[in-house]
Amino acid sequence: MARLTDLSDELIVEIISYLTPHQRASFMNGQPFYHWPEQLDKHNEAIMASIQDLQALSTACRRLYLIATEALYDYIPLSSNAERSEKLISTLDNNEDLTVYVRCVDVDVKRYGGMLQFTSLFWLPNVHTISIRGFDLWEPWEWEDDAHVGASPVQVLRLLECGAHEKPLTQMLSFPKALRELWYEVNQVEWDGHYGDNDAPGFTCAAVERAMANQVGSLEKVVFTRPTPDHEGIGYEDQLDVRQYERLKVLHVNQVFLTSLEPDVPVWEHLPKSLEELEVYYDDMGHIKILEDDADRPDWLFGMLERMAKPDEKGVRGDFTPLLERVRIISLEWHPEMYEESEEEEDDEEDENAAPATAGEPDVEIDESRGVGHPGSTWLPPRELIQKFIRAGVSFSIFLHGQRRYRYTVEGGRGFQDKWEDVLEELGE
Known about the structure:
The chain is an alpha/beta fold. The protein has a domain of 73 residues. The strands form two sheets. It has a twelve-stranded mixed sheet with strand order 1-2-3-4-5-8-9-10-11-13-14-12. A hairpin with a 5-residue loop joins strand 13 and strand 14. About 5% of the residues have low confidence.
């Protein structure tokens, strides 16, 4: 039998390609967006075995080292390992020849988040995606000039457990020349406390908007979330306003940042006309709810759908978010332990859902074949809300605790490609 080293370089490269770790977008499938940071860590841990196999192969002989090195550094999955992240950055700083191979890198900078050293990742010549965990700098870095602004090729940036304040956050978001995708998982607690004898500024969405301003002409996707809060009522200061982001197609956002405490905030005035997909997560069931009996009517949602259904003076669909195709609402209300109702109560809910359309609006037919709920439940969202979506031409999905879930694809519409709500049993907190 031929030895591996007897094979041609081309065949060895082909064999190595099966061991080469790649960050696949599929790691996000099957989970709501606010679970993606956790999924990223699980994904990275799962492929470390491939990394170890490649490392073993690369030490066999110099020829295999030279062939395997490119694959070994193509994707570096260290999003949950601060010590190895530090060693990696030092290795790249001292071995310039390796930097050309790095295209995707996930690091944990909790141990040295205030140091300039890790920012060198942004200027690796072929880097495309960077994930940074634990960036919590309060004061800005000092630069000799602005040569670093707009000089990075990074197109996807993920900031996990990010407690950095406005000025350092602004600096980091100014590095990429044209950022297409931003994940921002904010650690709001880091914005509180004291600067010496002075109070810290406190977190606001306005500060994040100012920090993102350098990428207003390029961002196509924004994921704006936070870790599960320790107690209710955190961070209801203001609302996110991204109306100026004319390329933004996808927005996944926690409700606290979209509407704050106001159920009737004019969200439609804060969204860009380019938006195609909106996903909203209610993570504070003790403070804000959407469909529970004592919840305020979500006028932000009804108002947006009503304005989409109303043609403008040219007869074009909607004067706000005219390209919106799908909306997903996720809420922590209806915990499993609260979900103990009789068949009679479910029948009562069905009767409520059968209420007529809003006064002054024609009734809209609901095609049951287009709707999918939990196979063990007959629960439906309020009929008025379903009709608003249909009238606006927007497909939707609503996922609550227990078996309360329902998605509907309007005629000619495009729903969500990842239908995780069909298989996920319960929401994790």
